[in-house]
From TrEMBL:
Family that this chain belongs to: Belongs to the D-isomer specific 2-hydroxyacid dehydrogenase family.
The UniProt record lists the keyword Translocase: no
Start and end residues of each D-isomer specific 2-hydroxyacid dehydrogenase catalytic domain: 48-302
Whole sequence portion shown: 1 to 302 of 372
A GO molecular function held by the record: oxidoreductase activity, acting on the CH-OH group of donors, NAD or NADP as acceptor
Keywords: NAD, Oxidoreductase
Protein name per UniProt: 3-phosphoglycerate dehydrogenase
NAD in keyword set: yes
């Protein structure tokens, strides 16, 4: 019998895959594997029995990778399993960064109670909430993995020009791009893009990559979207750029105290992967990887 520890709620269709030889619980005693979503494992004492950790999600920065490598614990993730969910929210972010959807909705609520005057008030006030169309504008995609590719392709379908950069872009992934100009450096993306969306993991090479210096290379009025990790940006530099008008909007899936409520910031509580479809996909992929490893010794990161 294999004991599997779940540190978050993992979709049942995933744990069902494991089958009768597994007990799945939140009991930390003697697990051979952990299924985890966003819970941090950095402070956790790794049990001697632990052989594998599978992240039902893409990023693995909540897992102490080096520590696991030293202890021989195999770490899996679920690349691509939530890519469609994130892509859809990026589309919403592109539109929210351009059209004053959020402010407009908030303002409309303040009209409540004005009865049949509301129509007139709307006519008078709505010009404060105009914003440009995205069609014909250029979207820069930094990181052309599973999510970046989908974002690039949907942006093309919406009539945007797309320029992308990824030093690790494989030929197979390149072939999936419909109409994306591939450039060698992020600087080329910064120079060309009206909108920039970042789809890279957080590591020593990417931490703080959107900062005063890189923002200065962007077009005036640029709109920046970050659905990857909050550590990729320097928040102070983002707020300065918003105040000066260098940046028109910052859309982020990380609601952190330093940026909440600031003009030009649209912050969501990490909703990118929050769809039932994505939660199912991630759970199935993570559980399949663990099962294959424990039963067959295969290390296949789907
Ligand atoms: C991911 O790493 O897959 C996404 O950020 C979504 C999540 O953390 O659940």
């Amino acid at each position: 019998m294999y004991n599997v520890l779940t540190l978050n709620k993992i979709a049942k269709c995933g744990t069902d895959i494991l089958g009768d030889n597994y007990t799945v619980s939140d009991n930390e005693t003697n697990p051979v594997a952990v299924l985890v979503r966003s819970a941090s494992m950095h402070e956790m004492e790794m049990p001697e029995s632990l052989l594998a950790i599978a992240r039902a999600g893409a990023g693995v920065n909540n897992i102490p990778i080096k520590d696991c490598a030293e202890k021989g614990i195999v770490v899996f993730n679920s690349p691509g399993a939530n890519a469609n969910a994130v892509k859809e929210l990026v589309v919403a972010g592109l539109l929210m960064s351009s059209r004053k959807i959020v402010n407009g909705i908030e303002w409309a609520k303040t009209l409540k109670g004005n009865g049949d005057q509301v129509g007139k008030m709307v006519e008078k006030g709505k010009s404060n909430f105009a914003g440009p169309e995205i069609m014909g504008k250029t979207l820069g995609v930094i990181g052309l993995g599973a999510i970046g590719i989908k974002v690039a392709n949907v942006a093309s379908a919406l009539g945007m020009k797309v320029v992308g950069c990824d030093p690790f872009l494989s030929e197979a992934n390149k072939a999936k791009l419909v109409d994306c100009k591939i450039v060698e450096t992020n600087d080329e993306v910064y120079a060309e893009a009206d909108y920039i969306t970042v789809h890279v993991p957080l590591n020593d090479g990417t931490r703080g990559m959107i900062n005063k210096e890189t923002i200065s290379k962007m077009k005036d009025g640029v709109r920046v979207l970050n659905y990857s990790r909050d550590g990729l940006v320097n928040s102070t530099d983002i707020l300065d750029a918003l105040k000066s008008g260098k940046m028109s909007a910052y859309v982020t899936d990380f609601a952190t105290d330093d940026i909440l409520g600031e003009d030009g910031v649209i912050a969501m509580p990490h909703l990118g992967a929050s769809t039932p479809e994505s939660e199912d996909n991630c759970a199935v992929m993570a559980a399949t990887e663990v099962k294959d490893y424990l039963e067959n010794g295969n290390i296949v990161n789907s």
